Structures are given as C-alpha cells and as structure tokens.
Amino acid sequence: MSRVRSSSMRVIALLLGLSAYGSLAAAQAPSPTSPAAPAAPPPATAPAAPGAAPPPPAGAPADPAQPTTPPAAAPTAPAEPAPAPAPAPPPPSYPPPANQPEQPPPPPQYAPLGEPSEEIKKGDWDPWEHVRQRRHDGFFLRLAIGLGGGVLGGDDHADEAFNEVGVGGLGLATDIAIGGAIVENLILHADIYQVTLFNPTVYADDEDVGDADEVGDMLGVGQDVRLAGLGVGVTYYFMPVNLYIGGSVGLGQAVFEGDHGDTEGSELGFGFNAMVGKEWWVGADWGIGLAGQLLVISAEDEVLGKINGLAASVLFSATYN
Predict the structure, then answer these.
(1) Strand runs (DSSP E) across the chain, as ranges?
(2) Could you say which of 39, 216, 227, 244 would form a disulfide bridge with 212 (CB–CB 3.0 to 4.6 Å)?
(3) DSSP three-state, residue 1
(4) Peptide bond into 108 cis (omega under 30)
C-alpha cells in the first residue's frame, strides 16, 4: 500500500514539472502578432580628442586587446606656464686667420665737379703765362761758382833788376750776392767775389821766368794769387726770358799766398764786378743758370808797385728770389 502511494506521488511530481516547463517556454517565445519595439538610439559620444583613435562602430565586437577607456577625470585648474629658458651666451669671437687678405679701403669720395669752364677761343692761349706768374721780388740770394782765369801785373817792382812783374793762370771763381728787390725785377744787393789763380806763371819784363811755386816767393807774388772784391751792385731781370745783367762797384785787393800758408795783401783799391746770365725756374722761388763774370781790381802794392788785375769766369748759379 505504501509502495503504491509513493509511486503515485512521483507521477504527480513529474507531471507538475513538465507543466511548469511548458508554461515557461511559452512565455519566452515572441508573439507572432505583436510588432517589435523600436531600438533605443545609441548614446551620444563626445568628439574624439586630436590624435585619439575613433570609437568602434555600433554593434562591432569589442577589441579584446584594447583596454576599456577609464572614465574622464574631474577638470582641474590649468597649470602655470613654465618660465622661458635663459638666452644662450654669444659664441666666442676668434681673430681672423693670418693669411686672410686685408679688406680694401673704401673708395675715395670726390666733390662734385663745378661748372665747366668756357671754351678756349683760338688765340687766347699764352705759352708764357705760367712764366709771367713768377716774379723777381722780395728777398734775393744768388750763389755762383765756376772756373776762371786772370792776369795781374805791377809796373814798379821793388827789385831794381826788374821793372814789371806779373802773373797769369787759371783757378776757381766764386760770387755771392745778397739783397732785395727795389721794384719788380730790379735787385739791389751786396756783392762778394773772388778769383784764385793756382800756381800761375810768373812774368818779368814780359818774359816767362817760371811757375809761382819756383820763383813766386823770390819775386814777391807767392804761390797762389787771389783777386777779390766787395761792392754794392744791382741786377736787372729781363722777363719772361729770365735773362739778367748786373754789376757792382766797391773795394778791390790782390792777395798773395806763400808756400807755408802765409799771406800778403796789397792795399785796398778799386774793385768792379760784372755778370751776365740766364736762369731757369726749378720751383716757385728757385732758379738755376749759367753766367759769365768779369772783374777788375786796381790797387797799390809795396813790392809790385801799382797793380792792375783782370779775370773772366764761367759760373754755375743758383738764385732764390
């Protein structure tokens, strides 16, 4: 009896289980008559940040390798900008290489040209214009030196064996004139001049008795004879050719020099010097040239008596005026 009761209870439990399973399956199956509810719109998403990967399309399977994006953190206050870095120091300067050529100087600057001069007409050019601009005025100095020759004779020798004794020969001539212009081209100056006859030939009563170094001391004329003078003179320049003529008058003397350097001179007498020359300008105030000189002296000498001397020379001159 008890066995029949337990079997009946099992059958009833099995039937109840099958009935519950069929009700659950019918509830989960879709109804063929009711329309499907519309799908919910996808949630709005914020625009992607620059450089970030775009989100996957809806319905696409999630990439298992890509981690899920964490929720955005709460906004924070902006950070202060970092200070600007200090400027770098300038690079060190180095001297230029030794073999580097120097830079050329800048080109010169010239002032603008003035107005052009008028055209020179035919016949207006004067070839002597630049010469006429040079004048002989102001201070005057002329130095001259050259070669000359002369004679000197006395008419009453102290030795009664001879009547006339004289000398003749060649030597050195010099002339110095210092002064100033009275008017343009007319110069007033002092004049110092001399001609020295070296070892002249001695004559006695018009006969050659030997050279002065042999018989000069015996006859009272020494070995060298100098004709010298000091005077006041004038010189006039003919311009524009720069040709001049001049002369001076003053004192004259004959000087006799022995073989030991001792000298004897005549008394002071008359002296005259004349010059004619031509000069060429070599500067604003300097000129050089050639000149001819003639000098005359006349004096008394205790050995030779009344003496007269004459000398002529060719001189090279340099003049400042």
Answers:
(1) 139-154, 165-183, 186-198, 201-204, 207-211, 224-238, 243-257, 263-265, 269-281, 286-301, 305-320
(2) 216
(3) coil
(4) no
DSSP assignment of 137-164: -SEEEEEEEEEEEEEEEESS-SSTT-S-
- pLDDT tier at 253, thresholds 50, 70, 90: very high
Please state the pTM of the whole predicted model: 0.57
In this prediction, residue 69 carries a pLDDT of 56
Burial of 103-115, coded b for 16+ CB within 10 Å and e otherwise, reads eeeeeeeeeeeee
Q: Which residue has the tokens 């001076």?
A: 248
Residue 103 lies in a domain: no
- The range of the structural domain enclosing residue 212 comes to 134-320
CB-based contact 220:212 (threshold 8 Å):
no
Amino acid at 133: Q
How many independent structural domains does the chain possess? 1
Report the 10 Å Cβ neighbour count for 76: 6
Find the CATH number of the domain harbouring 244. Answer: 2.40.160.20
In a domain, residue 177? The reply is yes
Residue 270 confidence (pLDDT): 96
In sequence order, the β-bridge partners of residue 46 are none
Does residue 95 sit in helix, strand or coil? coil
Of residues 48 and 75, which shows the higher confidence score? Answer: 75
Most confident of 126-135, 159-168, 248-257: 248-257
Rounded Cα distance, 292 and 312, in Å: 7
- What is the percent of the chain where pLDDT is above 70? 68
One-letter amino acid of 184? E
